């Protein structure tokens, strides 16, 4: 029963936040569509911000899963790393991702480096960088530094795409720059 209540609230909130944004979504918007009370919201999420954090986490997890699925189709860890970063940047074209994760997310939840979902992405990047370093594909580099910079580059490129006047025209520029930055880590003999 509790899990069903949480699911209903997250689904209702996701629709409301996507349509109206965080600031313009009322507590009544969040609970009425789910057929629940404010008490249910407070009990399960603490407040509107807690519910918003759950929505961001859900969307970010879906984004990571989509990017990971594309990465798994690649033949090498290097190609997978590039595909995952490029896919994450491309998801900035999705209006729901733009509004909830890339615009309202930082404004409401603060620095994405502190979001659990972003830290899961960083963990995946860290594992890929460590494997590439062990295979000799990358120059000698600090795994933590390289992982944070790659993650930050993809995230900031997604912010740029989401906020610009012509996201479709900006996307290929952002993806190409991400690829070129990442290639700077390659060892001389690497492909």
UniProtKB/TrEMBL annotation:
Annotated InterPro entries: Homeodomain-like_sf (IPR009057), HTH-type_TetR-like_transc_reg (IPR050109), HTH_TetR (IPR001647), Rv0078-like_C (IPR049484)
DNA-binding region(s), chain positions: 26-45
Domain HTH tetR-type: 3-63
SUPFAM superfamilies in the record: Homeodomain-like
Pfam families found in the cross-reference section: TetR_C_41, TetR_N
Superkingdom of the source species: Bacteria
Keyword list, A-Z: DNA-binding
Cross-referenced PANTHER family: HTH-TYPE TRANSCRIPTIONAL REGULATOR RUTR, HTH-TYPE TRANSCRIPTIONAL REGULATOR UIDR
Name of the molecule in the record: TetR/AcrR family transcriptional regulator
């Amino acid at each position: 029963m509790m899990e069903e209540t949480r699911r209903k609230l997250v689904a209702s909130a996701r629709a409301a936040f996507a349509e109206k944004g965080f600031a313009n979504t009322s507590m009544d918007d969040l609970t009425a569509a789910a057929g629940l009370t404010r008490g249910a919201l407070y009990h399960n999420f603490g407040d509107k911000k807690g519910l918003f954090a759950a929505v961001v986490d859900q969307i970010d997890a879906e984004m990571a899963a989509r990017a990971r699925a594309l990465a798994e189709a690649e033949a090498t860890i290097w190609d997978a790393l590039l595909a995952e970063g490029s896919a994450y940047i491309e998801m900035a074209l999705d209006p729901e991702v733009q509004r909830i994760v890339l615009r309202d997310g930082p404004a409401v939840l603060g620095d994405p480096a502190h979001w659990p979902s972003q830290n899961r992405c960083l963990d995946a990047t860290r594992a890929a960088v460590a494997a590439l370093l062990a295979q000799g594909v990358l120059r000698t580099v600090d795994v933590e530094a390289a992982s944070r910079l790659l993650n930050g580059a993809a995230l900031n490129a997604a912010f740029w795409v989401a906020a610009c006047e012509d996201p479709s025209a900006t996307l290929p520029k952002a993806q190409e720059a991400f690829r070129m930055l990442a290639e700077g880590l390659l060892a001389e003999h690497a492909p």
